[in-house]
Amino acid sequence: MVEQINRDIAALEATVKAIAIELENAYISYLTSLGQGVTKQLMLASYHVCTQGYPKQFVSLSFNKRQQLQQDILKLTQKAAEQLLKHTQTEHPLEFSFLAEEEATPISFSNPVELIKWQFQVENAIAQTLKTLSSQTNSVLQEAQILPNNLPLAPLLEAATSSPDDTPEVITGLPNLLNLLIETDSDNEAQESNVTQIVAIHLRLIDIEFADSTVRAKRNQLRNLSGKVGKLEREYQKKQREKDVAEAESAWRGSWFES
Question: For the CA atoms of 10, 15, 18, 23, what is the dihedral angle to 10 degrees?
């Protein structure tokens, strides 16, 4: 009984190894396309901030400053795209370079539980990359005096985007942008409050995938593979349970005796 279960588990582990390689290749393809999609979408979002959110501020810049701002944003997009591409160039399979040092622990290719954990870390790292890129771009826009520089922009945006769900009041009709209304105290004696509108960059994976059919198609491929991994994980857990029960039953019989 135990021997048969062990053979079943070994067969499952062999299947997981094959899926793991397929999943890694799918992420390589996805991250390559995502890097290109991020570049396009960040430049488009920055265009909307400068031309629709703060047109007067952008026009007031000198030609050289406008050009410098555009180049600074382009450099950020290129850096992010290169970072995503580097994730596909690691020497150790299924260990991408964007994972923090303490997170980049070797994982078992044959264990579906660890494979799911690894994929969760990958997705978190991608989300963090987009969050960091959004923050850096907003800082560049603020330094260029496009976004208001008299407000603590970073913590305000952090608070707005830390909500579990992005509400319609927070997200504009345009992708990858935030539209916030910030109430500030007035300097006059009446202590009247002022409301300041902020339109800022907020890169969202769902927006990028929706706008890019190639990225969306590769995400669908990842979803299909994730479904297979999930099914294998359930089968694996079931077999491990059966093994535990069979070994316990065998141990019981081995130690049982009638007085």
Answer: -120
Q: How far apart are CA 12 and CA 112, in angstroms?
A: 9
pTM: 0.81
Beta bridge partners of 159: none
Q: What span, in angstroms and rounded, lies between the C-alpha atoms of 103 and 96?
A: 10
Give the CA radius of gyration of the chain.
25
How far is the C-alpha of 32 from the C-alpha of 15, rounded, in Å? 26
Contact 230, 31 (CB under 8 A): no
102 φ, ψ (degrees, to nearest 5): -75, -15
CA dist., res. 158 & res. 44, Å (int): 22
For 60, other C-beta atoms within 10 Å of its C-beta total 12
Judged by phi (left if over 0) then psi (alpha if -120 to 50, else beta), residue 61 lies in beta
- Report pLDDT for 192: 60
Give how far Cα 111 sits from Cα of 3, 4, 25, 115, 231, Å.
Answer: 19, 19, 18, 6, 13
What's residue 42's pLDDT?
94
24: nearest Cα among 105, 69, 104, 89: 89
Burial class of residue 25 in the structure, from the number of CB atoms within 10 Å of its CB (0-12 exposed, 13-18 middle, 19+ buried): middle
3-state SS assignment for residue 191? coil
pLDDT digits (tens, 9 = 90+) for 117-148: 888 888 888 888 899 999 999 999 999 999 98
